[in-house]
Here is the input.
Amino acid sequence: MLAGGDVKGPAAPLPSGLILEAGLSSRAKAAIAGAILVLASGSTGLSQVQLAQYATAPQPAEVDTALVVSVDVSNSVDEHRYTLQMEGIAKALEDPKVLDAILTGPRGGILFMMVTWSDRPQIAVPWIKIKSKADAAAAAAKVRKVPRQGGEFTCLAKMLRFVSDKIVTQVPVKAARLVVDVSGDGSDNCNPEEPARVVRDELVEANTVVNGLPILEGREAATLAPWFVENVMGGPGSFVLPAEGYGDFGRAIKQKFVTEISWLSYQPSRYALQPGPRTKSQP
Here is the structure.
């Protein structure tokens, strides 16, 4: 397992653009408090300045995490491997530890979306809010029903561009944290116009955390995890957690969900590699 840093705590503060557990900024709190005091006193006339402050104050997050799960379905993923991935994600959503992480957060819920990608990416499961066991079961059922997408190549950079342009800019409700979870069994082989790390950096600049789950099976097994660290992982608290083959995917994705959703500090073991929080590509 490879790790980048802590998700929560003074060692790894979350991006400044996110609304944290502490709530709104001091300036926003002051503006809202002022408006409440004026209304409570019976006054009917807020000043233009007060109205403007109230209108532009950041709104509280409705969910703790907006989680985009991005799954490789390229040519190397046969029917059996595809089933292992879909069933692994579905079972993870139903797992008591994952459900506990979802329901015990400050806001008691998350947003979930799944993207499948090969030559091109597509939304396989649109945004769904999970705030109960029934919601999680409904999301798992949708994952199990996703038809297999055709494709030959591993176009990871193109997928990240799609996520950056079409998904993270259109999250339907305010989330305290936005996470993109990328899994795959190979590096980008599409000769992209822009490298994956360039798009990764854009996502990080937009206050998005990108985590990786490389599947160590096949000819790239020995080199894939370091490639994910350099080209996929990004943002405060980001990490890479490998699956040691498709048979290990279910275990890895469950562990990854618990860590991502609960904002726990990722605890590396014998595979530890800690390059530190990443905000820009290395030369």
About this structure: Confidence is low (pLDDT under 50) at residues 3-46, 265-283. The CA atoms of residues 12 and 253 lie 23 Å apart. The beta strands are 2-3, 63-72, 110-117, 121-130, 175-184, 208-214, 239-240.
